[in-house]
Structures are given as C-alpha cells and as structure tokens.
Amino acid sequence: MNQDIRNLEPKALWNHFADLNAVPRPSKKEERVIQFVKDFGNNLGLETFEDEVGNVIIKKPATPGMENRQTILLQSHLDMVHQKNADTEFDFDKQGIEMFIESDWVKAKGTTLGADNGIGVATIMALLSSKDIPHPPLEALFTIDEETGMTGALGLKGGLLDATIMLNLDTEDDRELTIGCAGGIDITATGNYTSEQVKGNASGFRVSIKGLTGGHSGMDIHLGRGNANKLMNRILLGATEEFGLQISEIDGGSLRNAIPRESFAVVAVPQESSEKFKAFIKEQKAILTQEYSTTDPNLEVLLEDASTPTEVLNKEDQYKILRSIYACPNGIYRLSPDIENLVQTSNNVARVLVKDGKYKVLCLTRSSVDSEKDDMATAIKSTFELAGANVSLSGSYPGWTPKPGAGIVKLMTELYRESFDEEPDVNACHAGLECGIVGANYPDMEMISFGPNIRGAHSPDEKVQISSVQKYWGFLLETLERIPVKV
C-alpha cells in the first residue's frame, strides 16, 4: 500500500514522506532518522551539519534571481509519537509505518501515522531536492525530541542560523495560521507501596477500558474526551468503597502528549461480592457510555475472569494512590480571558502504572501563561506529595507570544485571502510548538506556523488529508515566491 502513497500529488512530497516513514523515529531514539536526513543533505551536495544535541541543519542557496530575498528557515521535528492499538502487533523500533489510502485520507494500520510532523519534514525535503521551484535562500532545521520534551529546540544555540523568517510546518488545520502557543511542564509522581496477601476467599478479575477516542493532549483537550486513567480510577475507587476491592496492578495510558485511550487493571473481590461486582461494572459501563456517547462512541468497559492475584496493595496505600489520582485535575483548567475559545491552561493525566511494589503517574501541564503553568504544576505536585509520593517537575519550556503585526503574518494572511477567497484563522494554539523556544536565541526572527489537515494526531486514528496537502503545498510555494527583499 505504501507504493500507492508514492503516486499521490505532489509526488516529491509524498515520496519523501514514504521514505521517512520507513525509518523508525521514536522520541529520544532518533539516531537512525538523524543519519537519514544527514545522508539526504550530503547526497544533494548541500551544506549539512548536526549540532551538539542532534538537530540537523541544511542550507540551500536561492534560485537565480532571488538571491536578494530574506532567508527563510523551514522547521519541522524528526520524531513522532509511537502509539498503537492494544490488539495491533507492531514493533516501532524495527518496522516502518504501514500506510494506506481511504478516500481523501492517508492512514496507518493500527498505529500512529507520523504525519505529525512527517509531512512537514517531507515538505522541506521536497524543497531542498527540487530543481525547478523558485525560492529565496533556505535554511532547514530538523529538530529532535519535540514530542517528549522539546530538548532539540531547547538545545539549539544562537549563531547557527541566518534566517529572518521562520516557517514552522507543524499545524494541523489548513485554515489556520498559528502565531502563538502554550508552554508545558512534565510532572512525574513516583512511590513505593507495601504488598500484602489477598484477604479471605477472593475472585480475580481483569477490568479493561478501551475504545476511547484519545488524541493530542493539547490540540484536543478542549473536546472533553474521556481519559482512560481517570475513568479507571473512578471505577476502582467506587468498587473499593462498595465491595472492598483489592488492586494487584494498573496499567493505563502511554505518552504524556496523548490523551489515554486504554487502561487495564487486575483486581481481587471477595467471592461473596463477585456477582454484585459484575453488576456494578455493568452499571458503570452504562453510565460512562451515556456520559461519553458524543465524544467517545466506541467506549468499552470490559470485565473478564482472571486468576486470583496472590499479592495486592495494602489498604492504606491503595487509599492514598486512588484518591490522589482522583484529586488530580484533568482537562481544561482555565480558558484565556483575552482570546476567545483558547484553552489557556490544562493538564493531562497521561500514564498510570501500579505494579511490583511501585507506582508512577505522569502528567503534562500546558499553559500559554508561564506563571499559571507553574502554579498548576505546584498544585498537582502538592496533591501527590500529600499521598507520600516523590514528585519531580522537568522539561519545562516556554510558550510563544503572538506578534500579529509581523510582516510574515500580514503577507500570508493576505495571500490566503487572495488564494482561497476566505479569511484564514489567525490564532494561537494550546499545543506546544517550538517557535517560542527557537525565538529565545533568535529574538528578531519573525515566525508563523501552518500545515495541512491532520486529524487524530498522537493516536492510532491519525490521518492526513490528501487534498489538503495539495492546498498547503501550493500555498507554501506561493509564499516563498513573495518573500520580500532583505532590508
């Protein structure tokens, strides 16, 4: 099916995307894709180098007649979110993404597609390898580890780039011209618990929550989708209070920047309460199905018989863990009072793992206001510390302050109106983009972010629209032709 992708227009872009998707590229394991991009630049005879943290920079001179235009920085990140459905057999460390076409969309078989940000990377590759596309002087910045800490952008030094305008190709709606974004911080709560023998005669069960929509924990957080970790915790706490349920293990969610779609728990219930527990799960399934019928129509709450666990959490530790997760905020914390419908601050309870005497909870807090981001992180830290956990805050990165009067914003806004006979959505977003971080060392660089329609990013439902890629590609080429001369 990947061959069908190569026949799509624009062929250069789609062929580079297919080549890129054959290279495993999880965050923090980008060695192979770094070499892939370096080989690409060197084979073209272009100035190519890797900086000290692993970002790759490639420079291409202007086409004849455009040498006096401002230098443009094209920027995308090399890593992708690796997430798959539980029933999909796939090794992200060894296999390339298996793609297919469905109507006007390119999708992947049971995994993330990597259109975020592979389409941006492929776009830049198509421009660098082109021989007939007019363009000003180009610099390409391929950053690493955007999805799990933005360490590539954070490690980028000043003085490496000459560009005065940066085009970040990492937005997921082709009507949007993004000029600002949220910052973020990682919260990690860890601790130990004491195990004990199951009390009395007990029956073992495996509880599963599956089929949630999930999505990007920034771009989709306002949609009110179910969080598998929070829903599982709700069920387990209710069953603990009603039946004396004992937990053996919990395993929910995966990556900080993905709204968790699945959670699994192995539990023990007193035998005399087994039938009532089954009825309780059936009742909870009906309640949650009703609550999330709009946002998560495929939600499943499953109960299966399992071997009775030999060890479970002791009562006190189970009490603390369940209640701290229950108290931890999830979703929107505050909307912007200044920009209509913009989420200002949020939190995603991304990962919960309770097993073998240890537990951890991973969150990602985002905000376009750094002081509010830090305040919310402190509140969450306090919640888990009260339960006896060790809590660390790490990976903090700043937001990107909008500059609506910048020349590139005015140019692309007018060009969009002219090209498509409608107004673009010039906005700030709640996702984390690298623009603000890059701008810390290049404060005079004008910046804007745009891209084609991508839906379901950070989930196995991820897809990119073929016709939108064509629209975005044409818009980019016209933008490059209209870049003004150097001042």
List the helices and strands and how they pair.
Elements (H helix, E strand, L loop, with lengths): L1 H5 L4 H11 L9 H13 L3 E4 L5 E5 L11 E6 L21 E4 L2 E4 L6 H15 L8 E6 L7 H5 L9 E4 L7 E6 L1 E10 L2 E3 L4 E9 L4 E2 L11 H16 L2 E8 L4 E2 L3 E8 L3 H18 L8 E7 L4 E3 L1 H13 L3 E5 L7 E13 L2 E10 L2 H17 L3 E8 L9 H14 L4 E5 L5 H7 L4 E4 L4 E2 L7 E3 H16 L6
Parallel strand pairs: 3-6, 3-7, 7-23, 8-22
Antiparallel strand pairs: 1-2, 2-6, 4-5, 5-25, 9-20, 9-21, 10-17, 11-15, 11-16, 12-14, 13-15, 13-19, 18-19, 19-20, 24-25
Helix pairs in contact: 2-4, 6-7, 6-8
Please name the defining characteristics of this protein.
single chain; about 475 residues; alpha+beta; 6-stranded mixed β-sheet; 12 helices; about 30% helix
